[in-house]
């Protein structure tokens, strides 16, 4: 990558928000600061999942850290509109998705070729991610649309799990998560495709709403698949979906609580 890709405005992607209207140093101010949830949310999730990480799957904390990297990369991209920023933003999203899928996808959904081996599944996902990373550098203009397609298998897996889940609270959270995802995608499409119409209404900020909604949807999906993982592989841990600050308030911050404090054996 040459130095010109570090320059401001070197990305072929420019969102609807006007550039440098609020700050002379930040290209898209609202799109930049709307990533704040990616920075303040994951440290709290690390705290809520401390028992889960200690006794079930330590890699859950890697997912939260990757979400921080997504927020930092997205903020850098929207502040500079550089090609490097765009690639960092998109590639971190790809790796969050693939890491979550590799680590927490229930084994019964593995293709037969992997023979229910999570190690084989993780290796194949890593190879796919590396290939996709190389392609994204070659065709950066289509990266965002390609990443949108990842919502299809994720939604399908969530649908299959919700069909068999017994806990109604988990089911309701899955429905809310899907609804938020749909609204987020609608915001993204409108900002990208119908910018002129929203600019005439003096509201070119739908991409900022996308950032807020997609963080809520992304971390909620991670919580759900963390629940499915322990239900599938450690049912004796009696996982429970809980909410902070009040377990009776289902619009709070969801997390997974476990009740059997014995570390998960390595049997991938």
Automatic annotation (TrEMBL):
UniProt-listed Enzyme Commission number(s): 3.5.1.-
Main location: membrane
Function noted in UniProt: Hydrolyzes the sphingolipid ceramide into sphingosine and free fatty acid.
Enzyme class: hydrolase
Superkingdom field: Eukaryota
Pfam families referenced in this protein's UniProt entry, alphabetically: Ceramidase (PF05875)
Cell compartments where the protein resides: Membrane
TM regions (residue ranges): 29-49, 61-79, 91-109, 209-230
Alphabetically ordered keywords of this record: Hydrolase, Lipid metabolism, Membrane, Transmembrane, Transmembrane helix
Organism in which the protein naturally occurs: Aedes albopictus
Membrane topology summary: Multi-pass membrane protein
Annotated family: Belongs to the alkaline ceramidase family.
Database matches in InterPro entries: ACER (IPR008901)
Name of the featured protein: Alkaline ceramidase
Coiled coil: none
